[in-house]
Design a protein that fits this description.
By secondary structure, this protein is mainly alpha-helical. 75% of the residues lie in helices and 0% in strands. The two termini are 29 Å apart. Its main location: membrane.
């Protein structure tokens, strides 16, 4: 059925409004990052800085250890993404291919676990990491991120496994390949777009995470970027707006760049996985 012209106009208008809604905070963040103090305190703010400056960026790096925090965030995010994918891929294969009560129970647990609030699990996680002597350490934070992102990673990858025709695996079994060989040589290459999408999800989740890092990391040299950003807010709740905006802008860039580089592969792989035969 062809969509009428008024309906199409309404759809495009709704899409445009949604894009504006999403883009407004980021654009205002960029504008604030390049404004001098005089413009930040103006009663008539403007979108485009009249006298753009890089002083906010210099001040942000002088006041806080942003490079060290960025390295901590990168190590935590990459570690969580790699480990979560390595664990989730074979587990998702079993969940998708095995039919039975155990598989259904595992799927149900994956869905239910996403409803748990952070506050409910932080105390048990803190006690476990304390016993392992991993409090205030990036490896301990990686463990927490893996545990937290693993259920959704399983759910995502299981959907990609179901999109791979079982006939391909049956053909590999006829040729003498075992389960492990079939998973590595036949299924895994077809799951590449799904693995990339899952790794991206785990990376961005860990890169932007704040609550666990705030509780588990105590010393500034171990803290991640989201936690360091809070240091630009004074004891009385007054924010150093210019340097804060500059640091927040720099902290947002990596996840945007990563997504922009691989989003075509993710989209193309999702479409291709549905039509393979």
């Amino acid at each position: 059925m062809r969509t009428s012209t008024p309906a199409r106009v309404g759809q495009y208008a709704a899409l445009l409004a949604y894009l504006v809604f999403l883009a407004f905070p980021f654009l205002w963040l960029i504008s604030t990052a390049f404004k001098p103090p005089q413009e930040l305190g103006s009663l008539h703010p403007t979108w485009i800085p009249e006298n753009p400056t890089l002083d906010n960026f210099r001040q942000a790096f002088d006041e806080q250890p942003l490079l060290r925090a960025a390295l901590n965030s990168l190590l935590a995010a990459l570690g969580a993404a790699v480990i979560a994918v390595l664990i989730a891929t074979p587990m998702a294969y079993v969940m998708a291919r095995r039919r039975g009560r155990l598989a259904r129970a595992a799927t149900g647990w994956v869905v239910i676990s996403q409803a748990f609030p952070f506050v409910l699990v932080i105390i048990p996680l803190f006690l476990v990491l304390k016993n392992l002597r991993l409090i205030n350490s990036v490896p301990g934070l990686v463990m927490v991120y893996v545990v937290w992102s693993l259920p959704f990673a399983l759910w995502m990858l299981a959907g990609y496994v179901r999109a791979v025709p079982a006939e391909l695996e049956e053909a590999a079994a006829v040729d003498g390949a075992g389960r492990l060989r079939t998973l590595v040589s036949v299924t895994a290459p077809l799951l590449a777009p799904g693995i990339v999408a899952t790794a991206l999800f785990a990376f961005i989740t860990a890169w932007n995470e704040f609550f666990f890092a705030l509780v588990l990391l105590k010393t500034p040299e171990k803290q991640t970027l989201p936690v360091i950003l809070t240091h630009f807010i004074g004891a009385e709740g007054v924010a150093d707006l210019g340097p804060l905006a500059a640091a927040a802008f720099l902290a947002t860039l990596p996840s945007l760049v990563v997504f922009a580089l691989i989003q075509r592969r993710i989209t193309g792989g999702m479409l291709a996985g549905a039509v393979k035969s």
